[in-house]
Amino acid sequence: MTTALSIKDLRKVYGNGFEALKGISFEVEEGDFFALLGPNGAGKSTTLGIVSSLVNKTTGKVEVFGHDLDHNATLAKCELGVVPQEFNFNMFEKVEDILTTQAGYYGISAEDAKERAEFYLRKLGLWDKRDQVSRMLSGGMKRRLMIARALMHEPRLLILDEPTAGVDIELRRSMWEFLTELNAEGTTIILTTHYLEEAESLCRNIGIIDHGTIIENTSIRKLLKQLNTETFILDISPVQSSCPALEGYKVAMEGDHTLLIDVKKTQGLTSVFSQLAEQGIEVTSMRNKSNRLEELFISLVDKNLGGQTGE
Amino acid sequence: MNNNQLFIAFWTIVVREIRRFTRIWGQTLLPPAITMTLYFIIFGNLIGSRIGEMGGFDYMEFIVPGLIMMSVITNSYSNVVSSFYSTKFQRHIEELLVSPTPNWIILTGYVIGGSVRGLLVGLIVTLLSLFFTDLHIHNFFVITSVVLLTAILFSIGGFINAIYANSFDHVSIIPTFVLTPLTYLGGVFYSIALLPEFWQGVSQINPILYMVNTFRYGILGVSDISIGFAYSMIIGFIVVLFSFAMYLLNTGKGIRD
Questions:
Q1: Is the Cβ pair A107, B94 closer than 8 Å?
Q2: A303 in a structural domain
Q3: What is the pTM of this model?
Q4: A213 and A240: one domain?
Q5: Residue A76 distance to chain B (closest CA, Å)
Q6: Chain B residues with CB inside 8 Å of A91's CB?
Q7: Of A16, A213, A284, B216, which sits 20 to 30 A from B109 (CA to CA)?
Q8: DSSP summary character for residue B52
Q9: In angstroms, how far is the first alpha carbon of chain B from the final one?
Q10: What tens digit of pLDDT does each residue of A224-262 get?
Q11: Are strands A3-13 and A59-64 parallel, antiparallel or unpaired?
């Protein structure tokens, strides 16, 4: 299996002395859909900035499909497409011109650039806007424009830094579909996001970065196995004046008709329902308290924070 | 990237630059045309008729080469400084930085883009001057080469200014407080032979004096300074500033964290 991205001992100290990355190392295999997660200021954007040549590293090594960013930057850059967090295109240029200009920077002829621009603009639902000045686009359209721009040179590795931030649910779903399709066609994708359900439903592997160090790097499936307890919210009927006791489960009440039940990985839910039924309580609806990955993420980051502060 | 791809990348930057300044022609091409027409009317016609001759020519004939050169200098410089700074400000410099376009192509593309604007404004001013005086051509090679080299030199200067600029104020500081005084004191409106000996010496450390006088030599055949020395100085400045701009780009000064 080819390695799409290899990062070794990457360290970044900013001019003000802040150490954003403390020698991180990880690899992303070709064809992977990889999530890089972490709280704000953890070092995600710095890592992606270095990979994208937008931030100078202090020490370390970055390779894109085996091409060292220090010694073979041209080939490395040709393999890489970047969709940044902030809008970074010329707000006064037309949509189509932004794409063809970007293709020009990769040495793609005007004829090919026009063809590709049409393909991606149609694919991302922006073809009707091709002659519009980019600043007139809506937020979601601007995000799609940046994705189209990043794909103009047909990179094998696509990096997206919070691509769905501030995007409505419908558009987010359509972007997920597009990215899944792109990944299925062979493009390796690295994604940072604050929507953990996005990482859970899209990505196969995950890296969690906090305080400039990688605190977890595994598959989402393995990570979710670490989850020992899940909290379920049950709406019940009839209204209860006190919290019903369920043997083997930790139960709390929220209002007079909602129960919060902690269920261990080794336990099932059948016993919960049967015990409630015995007490004449009917479950009208049920849901997870929070996203499973979110619970793990919080526990990992909290654990790391404990280590950082020496707690 | 092979040579063809390098040329495509270079041409993309040049075309984008030309598209930018022609799209906002009301801010880039029209103002110098109006300003220079006013110079021709006020300094050339109204005041010039009372001054009489300068360096053996009508005052209007004398100042026209300097005014053309002044337009080329200010427009080449301001095109690159404002374009590259706004590229940084709007962050679409990142489009170039993530791409495989080499730094020397980025610099050359911007410099040629700026030079095209400088030369286009120079041409507009030259055509306008024909309404006020007859232009001679003493040496066509000198005219074209010195105007081209000057446009290149000040485009590189604008690029360096843009790299260091952190606000729009920084974009206008050098043109206002350095370029304009040097241009006015660079023999555009007078021959340095009129100055006392001490100030003649001081004037000779002003690089713009050499460009204006070389251009004037190409048109009128007269100059206050040595043409050969002027060429070597302009080319020397280009080499030094180009190398410095490349150093700044390679180290990521002002454009990479």
A1: no
A2: no
A3: 0.84
A4: no
A5: 8
A6: 90
A7: B216
A8: -
A9: 26
A10: 777 677 788 999 988 888 899 888 888 988 888 899 898
A11: antiparallel
